[in-house]
Amino acid sequence: MGSKFKKIIKKCKSLEKELSKYKLWASLIPKSNFFKNFRDVFSQPEWDILRKAVYKKDYYKCSICGKENIRLEAHENWNYDYHQSIQKLISVDSLCYLCHRNKHLGHSGILIREGELNQEELISHWSKINNVNIKQFREYEVKVFELWNLKNKFIFKILDNKGINIYEGASLSNVLKLIADDYEN
Ligand SMILES: [Zn+2]
């Protein structure tokens, strides 16, 4: 690995460390993996089994802000191993609409431009959950996209929680095991 890549990896890690201080932050999916996820590889009935197990695991609340009695969405969280170019599943969590839109800031930008999402609502939710001033959002957003631009320099293999490439042997039982383990803990 060249020293240029070593520098990039170091920068990615330091940005991740900084951003993960926020309770609600966006770890954006690199471009080459857009739309590559369990929703893509599982059938609709399998995805329904998965998301219902996720909602039950989180006691039917948003796992970030705790909102309940709302429509939940299942969100996959991935870990990025830059040295090995691996994007590995670490959890699947229930999120409310605004927490989920905050997780996908790139796509949310499109929704805002199309008038489908209210930007002030999105940012004020972010500021409330993280207990920081809304003025900090711009600075945060720059870092989110700086990290994303660096991630785009890699081609990550997508692995499930057991290390299986999801496009070679996606297994619902592997992911359900991860969710059951989370539920017990
Ligand atoms: Zn929420």
Description of the molecule:
- The protein has 185 residues and is mostly helical.
- It has one domain (3-180).
- It is 51% helix and 12% strand.
- The protein is built from 9 helices and 3 strands; from the N terminus they run H-H-H-E-E-H-H-H-H-E-H-H.
- The protein has helices spanning 3-19, 38-41, 44-57, 97-103, 105-113, 119-130, 137-151, 166-169, 172-184; strands at residues 73-81, 86-95, 157-159.
- Strands 1-2-3 form a 3-stranded mixed β-sheet, sandwiched between helices.
- Strand 1 and strand 2 (86-95) form a beta hairpin.
- The longest helix is centred in the first third of the chain and has 17 residues, at 3-19.
- The chain is globular, with a radius of gyration of 17 Å.
- The mean pLDDT is 96.
- Bound molecules: zinc ion.
- Zinc ion (ZN) binds at residues 62, 64-65, 67, 95-96, 99.
List its salient traits.
mainly alpha; three-stranded mixed sheet
Measured as a percent range, the helix fraction is: 40-55%
Q: Strand sequence of the main sheet, in spatial order?
A: 1-2-3
Average of pLDDT: 96
Radius of gyration: 17 Å
- The helix/strand class is mainly alpha
Heterogens: zinc ion
Low-confidence stretches: none
Q: How would you describe the shape?
A: globular
What share of residues are in beta strands?
5-15%
How far apart are the first and last residues' alpha carbons, in Å?
Answer: 38 Å
Total domains: 1
- Report the total helices: 9
Largest sheet: 3 strands, mixed
What order do the SSEs take from the amino end to the carboxyl end, as H and E?
HHHEEHHHHEHH
By DSSP, the count of extended strands is 3
